[in-house]
Amino acid sequence: MPAHIKAALLPTSLQIPVRGGRPMLGQWQGIYLVEHRDAPHRRRVAVHFA
């Protein structure tokens, strides 16, 4: 799938509620970082707490 279509369909940011220093996720929920490339690339992930 071309990159411009992936960018339109997949979010690039995510907001997760945090309580007591822990993410408020359901029992079967998780946070995953997915790379849609054939070869590995170095990435930088930024986490912002407000």
From TrEMBL:
InterPro entries: UPF0047_YjbQ-like, YjbQ-like_sf. It holds the Pfam family YjbQ. Gene3D superfamilies: YjbQ-like. Belongs to the UPF0047 family. This is YjbQ family protein. The lineage of its organism: Bacteria, Pseudomonadati, Pseudomonadota, Alphaproteobacteria, Rhodobacterales.
